[in-house]
């Protein structure tokens, strides 16, 4: 038997009140599926309302599927009503806002991160405000897929001075980081089954992106002089593309020697192939003179040059650039229109201002000094804590150290142990395809403050012991 109390002060009609009370009892489980409800005559007498009012309420509930009206057999709670439904979620506008959970701090030694703690946030904020205020109605239109023209002009001027080669702004395309540049290259130049030389060991995400396009990867060994060009020519002399990191090889840190640079360019010209130069952290060199880009030696115009602001500014920006030979400009413009509607204009505007006003060059000089100090501190701390248990391969540039632990466990095991200690080194062996380059850990120092180095190294030593 159901007990229903009507509220005379309720503004809802009587039949609606009856339907609401029955529905609530069904939802709460008080009225189980198959339960027989009072007849409309009995319930109307109980409530002191017209029989038609109860009939109207039952009709509403029947339309919702909450009850089944069976004529002379009476009205029952629908057997289709299963488990009790959850209470409806309240609209967020009526709830107290939840406290936002801050993003976790990056773990020490994680690869690919610049000094986020030293990023000039105040300067960036000021440029952001000015860029937003300067935007005109036309700036709210779809952006140019090739990129914001002043930024492309600033990049062309920067490359002429810093990397030693000239290009026109029309040859520069703004991309979503290096992966965006690689997507353009894959779309514009490569077809399913094309052979591509890749450094072994090398950048795993680049390999994965190429594999997703259906190309045939040809792993080419890397030694102290960089990519073994002769080995690539033996394995795949008619490859379509070679992906290289000539200034600071990822992950070994070596530089491609001049004889091999010339051999690579000669092969590309003879084979009608292309070379994609990933110049991912060439700005950070601590000994000797900065090395010119491979592109600066490219007399046959076979090199595509890719750079990124992820390492020199911050990765959340998701901006990079690709410089293509003039004969490929049209093809890459078409690929840009097909693959992307363009990168967000505000970020491009800010970076252009940063470069035009000289802030970018000053930031790089400051980071070179800071990274040199952090590199030195990490190397010294490793030697102090681990002694002869660690061998440190100090190369001339970059943002990480390659460390080897003679006699220690597999580097994949060491990474798992370090992860339990709240650290994020990278295993060297996981970056190889076909050629064994030994065991080792890659330790990023760029985002590790000097004052935090001793603690991080102590935790690493305890973890791998």
Descriptive report:
There is one protein chain. This protein is about 40% helix and about 15% strand. It has three domains: about 60 residues, Arc Repressor Mutant, subunit A, CATH 1.10.10.10; about 240 residues, Aspartate Aminotransferase, domain 2, CATH 3.40.640; about 100 residues, Aspartate Aminotransferase, domain 1, CATH 3.90.1150.10. Helix 6 packs across helix 10 and helix 13 crosses helix 14. The chain starts with 13 loop residues before the first helix and ends with a helix. It is built from 14 helices and 15 strands. The longest helix is centred in the last third of the chain and has 28 residues. The strands form three sheets. It has an eight-stranded mixed sheet with strand order 4-11-10-9-8-5-6-7, sandwiched between helices. A four-stranded antiparallel sheet has the order 12-13-15-14, with helices on one face. A three-stranded antiparallel sheet has the order 1-3-2. The chain is elongated, with a radius of gyration of 33 Å. It has about 475 residues and is α/β, with parallel strands linked by helices.
């Amino acid at each position: 038997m159901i007990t229903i109390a009507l509220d005379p002060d309720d503004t809802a009609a009587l039949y609606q009140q009856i339907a609401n009370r029955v529905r609530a009892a069904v939802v709460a489980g008080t009225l189980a599926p198959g339960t027989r409800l009072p007849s409309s005559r009995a319930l109307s007498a109980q409530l002191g309302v017209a029989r038609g009012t109860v009939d109207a309420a039952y009709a509403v509930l029947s339309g919702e599927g909450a009850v089944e009206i069976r004529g002379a057999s009476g009205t029952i709670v629908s057997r289709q009503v299963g488990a009790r439904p959850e209470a409806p979620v309240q609209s967020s506008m009526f709830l107290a806002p939840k406290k936002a959970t801050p993003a976790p701090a990056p773990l020490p030694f994680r690869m690919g991160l610049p000094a986020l703690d030293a990023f000039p946030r105040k300067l960036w904020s000021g440029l952001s405000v000015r860029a937003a205020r300067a935007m005109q109605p036309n700036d709210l239109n779809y952006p140019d897929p090739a990129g914001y023209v002043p930024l492309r002009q600033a990049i062309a001027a920067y490359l002429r001075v810093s990397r030693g080669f000239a290009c026109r702004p029309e040859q520069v395309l703004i991309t979503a980081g290096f992966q965006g540049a690689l997507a353009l290259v894959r779309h514009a130049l490569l077809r399913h089954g094309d052979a591509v030389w890749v450094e072994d060991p090398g950048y795993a995400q680049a390999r994965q992106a190429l594999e997703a396009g259906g190309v045939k990867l040809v792993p080419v060994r890397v030694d102290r002089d960089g990519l073994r060009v002769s080995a690539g020519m033996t394995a795949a002399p008619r490859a379509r593309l070679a992906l290289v990191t000539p200034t600071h090889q990822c992950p070994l840190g070596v530089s491609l020697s001049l004889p091999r640079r010339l051999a690579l360019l000669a092969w590309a010209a003879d084979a009608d192939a292309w070379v994609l130069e990933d110049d991912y952290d060439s700005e950070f060199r601590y000994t000797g003179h900065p090395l010119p880009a491979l592109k600066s030696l490219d007399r046959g115009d076979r090199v595509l040059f890719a750079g990124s602001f992820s390492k020199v500014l911050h990765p959340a920006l998701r901006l990079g650039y690709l410089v293509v030979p003039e004969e490929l400009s049209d093809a890459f413009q078409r690929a840009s229109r097909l693959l992307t509607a363009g990168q967000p204009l505000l970020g491009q505007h800010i970076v252009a201002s940063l470069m035009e006003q000289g802030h970018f060059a000053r930031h790089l000089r400051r980071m070179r000094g800071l990274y040199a100090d952090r590199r030195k501190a990490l190397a010294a701390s490793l030697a102090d804590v681990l002694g002869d248990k660690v061998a440190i391969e100090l190369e001339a540039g970059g943002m990480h150290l390659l460390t080897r632990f003679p006699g220690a466990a597999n580097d994949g095991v060491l990474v798992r142990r370090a992860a339990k200690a709240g650290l994020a080194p990278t295993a060297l062996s996981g970056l190889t395809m076909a050629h064994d380059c030994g065991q080792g850990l890659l330790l990023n120092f760029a985002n590790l403050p000097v004052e935090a180095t001793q603690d991080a190294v102590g935790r690493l030593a305890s973890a791998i012991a």
